[in-house]
Amino acid sequence: MSESRRRGSYAVGRRRRDRIVAVAAEQFATAGYAHTSMARVAEEAGITATGLLHHFPSKQHLLLAVAQHRFDVAAALVDSAAGAEGDADALFEALLSVTRRFVAEPGLIELFVTLSAEAADPSSAAHELFAARYERTVGELTARFRACARGGSLRADVDHEVVARECVAVSDGLQLQWLLSGRRTDLLAGIESHLARLRETLSPANTAERAPARRRAV
Predict the structure, then answer these.
(1) Where do you find CATH 1.10.357.10 in the chain?
(2) pTM summary value
(3) Is the pLDDT score of 199 beyond 90?
């Protein structure tokens, strides 16, 4: 097979895989993981059951791909909504927009919480995925906070990595509470309240008059 034909075949396969993941994410978000069959995903994606198994040998493989898709969508949402680097107001609004997206896909919140618990086991297939997700998310968010501090829209006398980890912890923790409360916890209001307090705390107007020798966490 020529190089151009191989590239074409790969591109087709990649598009088909992306289509399967998108369909599965939609089905999991609306009908729930337990009530979505592989046959239904194949039907909605316009492929045969055999074709689906070629890309995803099991429903667990598909679940992990959907989780990765969710992480990628959240990261892309922050990238697109955060605006110019160093704009703290745009950054906090972008973080809130991620929660709005999560609330619109309650089935995926349930999947995320379930996989989070599973990921604590180093032998789990979800462990590496979630470990990489935390490092990536915290790293990217830390960099954004630092850029805002350099631009003067956030305080510079705090540990921005600690702040980033706090944001991730609050989001993940509230998603767990949302699930355990039978969806009664107001996830969006909780995140909005946290971000508002954090925005006030990190305002340059609250910078200590004399910077300490060691940067403090908020």
Answers:
(1) 58-218
(2) 0.80
(3) yes
